[in-house]
Structures
1.
Amino acid sequence: MTDPTGTTGTDVEADPVAADAGDPLAALRDRFSLPPDLVYLDGNSLGPLPRGVATRLSQVVTREWGTSLIRGWNDHGWIDLPVRVGDRIAALVGAAPGTVVAVDSTSVNVAKAVSAALRLRPDRQVVLSDSGNFPTDLYMAQGVVNALAGDAHLEVVAPDEVEGRLSGPDASSIALLLLTHVDYRTGRMHDMSALTAAAHRAGAVTVWDLAHSAGAVPVDLESCRADFAVGCTYKYLNGGPGSPAFVYVAPRHAQVVDPLLSGWMGHHAPFAFEPAYRPAPGIRRMQVGTAPILALAALDAALDVWEAVDMADVRAKSTALAERFVTGVERRCGHHGLELASPRDPSQRGSQISYRHPEGYAVIQALIAEGVIGDFREPDIMRFGFCPLYLRHHDVETAVDALATVLDDRRWDTADYKVRAAVT
Ligand SMILES: *Cc1c(COP(=O)(O)O)cnc(C)c1O
């Protein structure tokens, strides 16, 4: 029973005003600097600017760099910043302090984790991944096996075949399982706990990519007994364009892993300038070169937003926002040939909703012109990310209205909207 305003009168959740009024995360929106009159559904690609970042950056630039110069490495603790920021990320992905470092890009961290994992299983050849994985993860894994020049090779199966492969007859050749937890196109979420356990039963180690998980869904690396993890910080963690990524190594491996990239910042004593490489104890060995302090400072400030946030609240609101979107799109746009590409069951997906549409790219461009930002992934996927720290229920209603208008009026059907930009 719906009335013309879309509310039932008895169902508080259906009424966006009531849902926003009862939202335990509502106050966090003020922590972000968001352009007015814009609904931002692309925080899964690039999170918005947290308000504290500009002040912190200007302090680090003018006071720390400008005044302390080289003394800043000691006086302002720059040398430990990758590990300090790593500890803050660890808290968001169920990892202990001292197990995560904020460093390099996710791509580079995939290479480091895959090579370290392969060296833990020198008698095995297979790097197992799935076809839902993000291309850079597969490219880097392929590059690593090429560079190692042994008989290691990459094997890619369909996402729903991973478990079978791990329990199949040839499982003893699998050195490591490399998976992205939440699929960047569809939002489909793997069962990290079950697949890690299956990999371990096969004698393999795991490398999880948390690019679309960190800050998006509850993750518990420790209780899953994950071996390695990597992830981005410019998506749901709002660290800014190109902010440093992170890498996790389980404490049981951290003293023994042999990183492919043996740089001086991963050395036991970088300022001893010894002629031979000796890895640092623990997670520091996953560092390579000098850390980008300005970018790390921005990320550090961005992470302040998470201080008092409970990931269970984030998950509950993310699910409610996405459900509001899916049911709204079903009701308003159902006849326009949109095909839901995400699992319909909220427990099977991360914090995004995707639809397939043959003119998906143009539809997204038209939607952006209406003040609702989503993005597009080849060949036909329209993606909408739901970030509970700053999105309101009524923003979702606005987005559904805009999508309905774009489709009803065929506003996407112009030549301009069909020309792909460099970044989609
Ligand atoms: C976004 C994303 C990346 C990006 O890697 P960069 O090295 O930061 O460019 C890698 N893997 C996955 C799964 C991603 O979603």
2.
Amino acid sequence: MSVDFRIPHSVRRVASISLDAVLSNLSALGGNGRAVDLRGDAYGHGLEIVAPALLEAGVRELVVSPGVDAHPTTTGLGRLLETHGARTIALDDEPAAAEAGAGVARDGVIGPELFGLGDRALLPAMRFTAEVIGLKRLRAGEGVSYGFTYRPATDTTLALIGVGYAHGAVRLASNRMRIRVGDGLHPIAGAISMDQFSVDLETGGEQRIGVQVGDDAVLFGDPRDGAPHVLDWAEQTGIPAPAITSRISSVVARVATRGGRVVERTSEPSVTTAALDLARLSVPTAPARPGATRIPADHLPDRAVARIDLAALRDNVSTLAATVAPAAAMLVVKSDAYGHDLLSCVHAGLEAGATSLGALEIGAGLALRNAGVRVPLFAWMHGTRADFRGAIERDVDLGVASAWQLEAIADAASRADRGLARVHLKIDTGLHRSGVNPEDWAGLVTRALELERAGRLRVVAAWSHLSDTSPHDDRRSLDRFEAAVAEARSLGADFEQLHIGASAAGIDYPDARYDAVRLGIAAYGISPFHDRTAAQLGLRPVMSLEARVLDARGDVAVIGAGYGDGLQSRRGAETAVLIAGHRYAVAEVGVDRSLVATAASGPVSVGDRVVIFGGADAPTAEEWAEHEDTVGDELVTGVTARVPRIATGA
Ligand SMILES: *Cc1c(COP(=O)(O)O)cnc(C)c1O
């Protein structure tokens, strides 16, 4: 009884899987007669895409993630296996297989090296691309993205790429990786954020060669085509390549190519939640949508689940709404409500005092309208295929960050059957990610007012976004914002609303609240500050990621969660989990399960509940993030689609 709740994505993001590379690697590895390990949805390459090609090539034994990727008796995979006289097998160090004495030795099985994830002599199978959604001139010495960790030495041009850590672009690659844009490799400039990052197209002698909005940037792929290798990402971030590809979000479309041509694509990528993914794979007890996630108590008992405490979300939202009042509280629900399940969070947030929703992309806004949500919705990140007309007809307010967007919206407005485009003009006040530069602001405002007079749109708001770098930088941004608003008013603009603050400024900086605050991470109970915990701010974590102990022998326990569930796994990170009231160090993160060192503390038994992060007494997402050298946002948005979100406190 899964409800069809799909989010079409307004920005192009694709993982293309070269079946030629997979099959070439298979034969290089002496594939005939060997079993192949396809756990973690074929290490993120898509079991549905890869398995048929391997079976046709003669592979007869597959290792899959049990009860997660496939339920061989009910899925298409079962029929496929039958047709080819093939079967799934277990590894002999899997607890269940070990007990039954039924497994095969791991070293006889072809692992993630099949996808070129271990050895540069083999071919990398995945090419990860995303759309260029903006271009911007930047002056020498100006900072880019949160914390201003990048400042170019000379004037330059930035390209904004519409993909971020919520999609699997590992945040640790910030300022470390170069990616292919146009004809060159260009450095990632500043912090990778949840859904976007910038690259510097010119610094370091590189020249921007005809890069345009709508082009594809290649994060990684085949070095023979001039792309970075996924193993470069692994080296630069300390995260093993199989963990990088396995954590690429299900909203990134998977397409299979052969001879350079697309031969198959998975269904239109949609909402990231487990519900749909499980439905797609026909697990018999797939949770119901929308937002229900009522799962029988015995559902996938050994698998990781994310408990979503809606009572905590309501408390956080009402605390924050009271803090920012009389400014309105806009609840930001981008990236499937920061990985927490969009619909459940929307309903809880609106009950608790949020009066509008920040959807990020038009697709999410339209999905919310289809689900009956009537409050004001705001979408501000647009790819070249964004459905502006749909947004206008369904009353989704639109952020405008550049001239091309304004013209595309005006054009859509002239074709729309109903409604008026409601636009929020974005001035770049120093974050240098998106928004028009001050020198282009008067031109954008003038054109918007002209279109307003022509009845094509309504200029609703002026807005911007802060870098949270320092009080001094935030003050400078507010000054620039005030100047831009004054200039627009002198040109005749009559704004209903001004907004600039997100969680950090909403809590700490009354001057930045204006008419509305766009509240994201704090609402999910994660602190936006490095020097204060969520508890100190009166906020409670909403997500707790849980698993069970599958095996406990000697001084290690095996827990049923791994990077296939989204666990971050930087080499050498000293993370811990909570089991039966004690914290234990994580020794190793695998695809489906991880090893925990239990020597020092109390007894651990098979079946014990493991809280990885987020519950009472457990490490917080922020603590995990600190060990992983990232932010809590990356951990919660990185929880993969196969992990059911179980709402409590509804
Ligand atoms: C993500 C985002 C927010 C919310 O930020 P938090 O720090 O999570 O509160 C607000 N505004 C914009 C433009 C964003 O992209």
